[in-house]
Amino acid sequence: MNVSVAAQQLLLNETRALLTRINQVEPFALHIPMVPAAAIPLNAQVAIERHLSEVRRKLKVMVLAYLKWLESPEGKVAPPPVAQRKFSFLRLRFVAILNQLDIFADVLNQRSEHETGVWLSGLDVFAADALKLPGGYYEAPPVICFLERGPGAAIRRARTRLPGGDSNPVAVIQVPRERMVGSGVAASLVHEVGHQAAALLGLNESLRPVLQQKAQSTGGDKLAWSCWERWISEIIADLWAVAKLGVIATVGLMAVVSLPRTFVFRVDMEDPHPAPWIRVKLSCTMGDALYPHPQWEMLGRVWETFYPQQGLGKEQVDMFTLLEKNIPQLVSLILGHRPTSLRGKSLGEAIVSHDRQPLRLRSLWSSWRQTPQLMRQAPPALVFAVIGQAKADGAMGAGEESPVLAELLRYWALRVTLDTSAICARGSALQLGRRFITQYKV
């Protein structure tokens, strides 16, 4: 056997091995064990399975086409470097699809954990509610949550690129394991939801030119507006959290960024996150602009006592003085911004909610203490806002908070499961599933 024949035989064997592995890829519904209440939302599961079915089908077509070429007269006489180059691109595509599979598998495998899986299903419901925006300004994608180590949350937004370049069919939110279960998880989760909402509304793209123009025309304040332009994506996500959760968003942020002083006062223009010290002050100002109340000023003063500026160098003090001076103007600009996606409304008008006013949250808490069942009838984001306000007011302790929220997460998970079962009984989901099964066959 000469070298060219040996090379072709090797590539044939490797390609057929790829084909065998592709054929072994099955829908998650066939091999991920979980109780029904821990399942991801039906629309998310269908979206993921459809996506993986389609990329699997396309890859299989590519592999079969390569095998056909390799065994054709043209392929048999092709130089080994040419055949190997074609195979290497095929294998890279194969690896990218396996990486996509692993992303979703990591999420779904946690659903089999006792208690955790059901809590995550409840968080899916909460996240979906936090993404809602009255007015029909966008079609919200499915949202699923999973736990990860570390203090920070993260999101892989829907409609962004997965490994290999395919479009992500769902939003996947990573929640810090150490923040389960309590109202603290809400601030991290809804901040990430805010990133998805900002992308759906095109807020970062529409605000950046405005901020850049401000930086060019504000003289001595140019540095501050350059910072705001660099940090705008995180600022909008923080704004979304405050709009949906009220004071607990800022309290939760304070917990996340309570770091050694060196990090709290570090201004890094390579980092999309604002310096923690100014980020908390900004959150307080946004909260007071949306839901005016003395609590926001008090929170800002508390933050200053945690991290006084005494001991900082003059350059740092001047920087934070400049940034803090420009916060009110920045918040006014953001809330008054009218992107085309909001069809004439300002951002502040679109996201503010009467139910998140502090006095309203306190009134709801008073009613719910008398009739706890009312919590189950309220939207999940409102429930977290009410409980967060009660905790901030000292009307509810951490020992009481965690059991209540854990029970509500279980209830939301069970409710959505039963609602889905009812839809299935009417045939809608069954037809959806049948369409998926038909598509999956290659």
Annotation keywords:
disordered C terminus, 19 helices, 3 domains, 3 strands, 442 residues, 68% helix, mainly alpha
Descriptive report:
There is one protein chain. The protein has 442 residues and is mainly alpha-helical. It has three domains: 223 residues, no CATH class; 151 residues, no CATH class; 44 residues, no CATH class. Helices cover 68% and strands 3% of the residues. The chain has a three-stranded mixed sheet with strand order 1-3-2, sandwiched between helices. The longest helix is centred in the N-terminal third of the chain and has 30 residues. The C terminus is likely disordered.
Quick structural overview:
With 442 residues, the chain is mainly alpha-helical. It has helices spanning 3-23, 42-70, 73-77, 80-109, 116-131, 184-201, 203-217, 222-245, 247-256, 261-264, 276-290, 294-306, 314-336, 347-351, 358-370, 374-377, 380-392, 398-426, 428-440; strands spanning 143-148, 154-156, 171-176.
List the helices and strands and how they pair.
Elements: H1 3-23, H2 42-70, H3 73-77, H4 80-109, H5 116-131, E1 143-148, E2 154-156, E3 171-176, H6 184-201, H7 203-217, H8 222-245, H9 247-256, H10 261-264, H11 276-290, H12 294-306, H13 314-336, H14 347-351, H15 358-370, H16 374-377, H17 380-392, H18 398-426, H19 428-440
Parallel strand pairs: 1-3
Antiparallel strand pairs: 2-3
Helix pairs in contact: 1-2, 1-4, 2-4, 2-19, 5-6, 5-18, 6-8, 6-9, 7-8, 8-9, 8-11, 8-13, 9-11, 9-12, 9-17, 11-12, 11-13, 15-17, 17-18
